[in-house]
């Protein structure tokens, strides 16, 4: 007689969608499957800038996990994982419950690092989690008075920070006819990892939109940002796009972690210290090669993760997630154009936006339609 083993997916975001789809296609044999995640809907971050400007309605970028979990035969538990004891094979939930697992897959993403901005209090909007950001951004716009233009700053010069600055400027421009948006980033972090052509194109877009760029460090104060160059910027709202830091609860888990606290995994996405744990997406640090924390890699690792979870239960070889040498990034400019970044190549235009729009809509629809009994293949997401 075989006893069923409990397999828990922690986090219902980009990396785990392909696993749910895999289970929906072919149930895991002799397994009791759980999906533990914060909220019933997960947001596709690539469409967030377009939502801010009004090109998408909220429901167009939200994926309902309830029907997906049902199709996958997984019990949906809406709670946060707040603790992990890797030796005892238990996770602790925000409800206080301790749950045993036989196999655990971690993809709860990273946390936005807001430590140097916390003094801003209610003026601070973290870019992630995306659903909370959407609520805070809507509330900020509701507070906007048409008489006094709102001042918004974005801290963080990665792709997300640049897109959010351009989107905020476009959204406020629609409201007031002009906008007062500032982007603050240390110069070495401005579109780090992207070719010079992309940085040049982004600078031109920021200038065209009237976004003021400060190459400096920012610290939050009650009424705005104090920059390392001595400038004080009063702000009604500050968006933190400061990148991911590791979830704090990992520190006491006993799992092998990277120096900065992320889950160490090899190319097979398995923990070298605890074979019952796999992980993917923004929560990991690869031990074999550096891989950027981005939706592209979270999405593309998903099918490998699905295959390896199946192999870990039923025997069989584990696959490796080998990132392509070049990754395609498409950065929305807030006006139905976008900047393409691929290896050393860059381009800007409406055709790039059309490509991005198609990829993004196709990705969300593939999970929405799957849940509605559609037969589409898993979306390609972020190309
Ligand atoms: C504005 C913006 C735009 C972006 N655009 C792009 C882009 O164009 N291209 C690109 O490649 N990347 C982009 N990214 C990055 C991309 O969003 C992330 O790299 C990707 O979401 C990581 O996927 P993940 O599965 O690790 O985590 P997520 O997709 O963040 O999923 C995490 C899931 O876990 C849940 N969760 C969180 N904490 C817990 C917990 N403690 N317990 C249980 N559940 C939990 C969350 O609710 C969520 O469902 C963007 C990010 C932002 C902020």
Write the layout of secondary structure elements.
Layout: E1 5-10, H1 14-25, E2 31-37, E3 41-43, H2 48-53, H3 58-61, E4 62-64, H4 65-72, E5 74-78, E6 81-85, E7 90-93, E8 98-100, E9 103-106, E10 111-112, E11 124-126, H5 130-143, E12 151-155, H6 159-176, E13 180-185, H7 196-209, E14 212-215, E15 218-221, E16 224-227, E17 232-234, E18 237-240, E19 244-245, E20 263-265, E21 277-279, E22 284-286, H8 295-314, E23 328-332, E24 338-342, E25 345-349, H9 350-371
Parallel strand pairs: 1-2, 1-9, 2-5, 9-21, 11-18, 12-13, 12-18, 13-14, 20-22
Antiparallel strand pairs: 3-4, 6-7, 7-8, 10-19, 15-16, 16-17, 23-24, 24-25
Helix pairs in contact: 1-4, 1-8, 4-9, 6-7
The structure holds flavin-adenine dinucleotide.
Residues 10-15, 36-39, 42, 45-46, 48, 80-81, 107-109, 127-129, 160, 163-164, 281-283, 293-296, 298, 329, 382 line the site of flavin-adenine dinucleotide.
Describe the fold and architecture:
This protein is α/β, with parallel strands linked by helices and 383 residues long. The chain folds into two domains: 144 residues, FAD/NAD(P)-binding domain (3-Layer(bba) Sandwich); 129 residues, 3-Layer(bba) Sandwich (FAD/NAD(P)-binding domain), CATH 3.50.50. The chain has nine helices and 25 strands. The strands form eight sheets. A five-stranded parallel beta sheet has the order 5-2-1-9-21. A hairpin with a 5-residue loop joins strand 23 and strand 24. The longest helix has 22 residues. The protein is globular and about 65 Å long. The N and C termini lie far apart (44 Å). The model has no long low-confidence stretch (mean pLDDT 93).
């Amino acid at each position: 007689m075989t006893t069923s083993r409990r397999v828990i997916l922690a986090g219902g975001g980009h990396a785990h969608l392909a696993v749910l789809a895999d289970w929906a296609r072919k149930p895991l044999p002799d397994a009791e499957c759980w999906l533990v995640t914060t909220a019933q809907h997960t947001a596709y971050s690539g469409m967030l800038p377009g939502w801010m400007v009004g090109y998408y309605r909220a429901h167009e970028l939200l994926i309902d996990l309830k029907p997906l979990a049902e199709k996958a035969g997984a019990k949906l538990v809406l709670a946060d994982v707040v603790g992990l004891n890797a030796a005892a094979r238990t996770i602790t939930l925000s409800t206080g419950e301790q749950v045993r697992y036989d196999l655990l897959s971690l993809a709860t993403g990273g946390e936005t690092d807001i430590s140097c901005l916390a003094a801003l209090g209610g003026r601070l909007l973290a870019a992630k989690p995306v659903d909370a950001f959407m609520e805070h951004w809507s509330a900020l716009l509701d507070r906007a008075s048409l008489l006094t233009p709102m001042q918004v700053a974005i801290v963080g010069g990665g792709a997300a920070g640049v897109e959010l600055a351009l989107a905020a400027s476009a959204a406020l421009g629609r409201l007031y006819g002009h906008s007062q948006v500032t982007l603050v980033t240390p110069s070495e972090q401005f579109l780090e990892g992207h070719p010079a052509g992309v940085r040049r194109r982004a600078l031109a877009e920021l200038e065209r939109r009237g976004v003021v760029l400060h190459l400096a460090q920012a610290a939050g104060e009650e009424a705005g940002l104090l920059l390392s160059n001595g400038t004080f910027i009063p702000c009604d709202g500050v968006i933190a796009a400061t990148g991911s830091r590791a979830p704090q609860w990992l520190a006491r888990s006993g799992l092998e972690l990277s120096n900065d606290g992320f889950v160490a995994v090899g190319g097979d996405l398995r923990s070298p210290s605890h074979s019952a744990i796999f992980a993917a997406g923004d929560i990991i640090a690869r031990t074999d090669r550096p891989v950027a924390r981005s939706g592209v890699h979270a999405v593309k690792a998903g099918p490998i993760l699905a295959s390896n979870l199946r192999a870990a239960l039923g025997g069989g070889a584990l696959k490796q997630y080998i990132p392509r040498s070049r990754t395609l990034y498409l950065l929305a400019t807030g006006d139905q154009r976008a900047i393409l970044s691929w290896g050393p190549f860059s381009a800007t235009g409406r055709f790039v936006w059309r490509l991005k729009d198609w990829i993004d809509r196709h990705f969300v629809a593939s999970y929405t339609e799957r849940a509605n009994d559609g037969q589409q293949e898993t979306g390609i997401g972020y190309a």
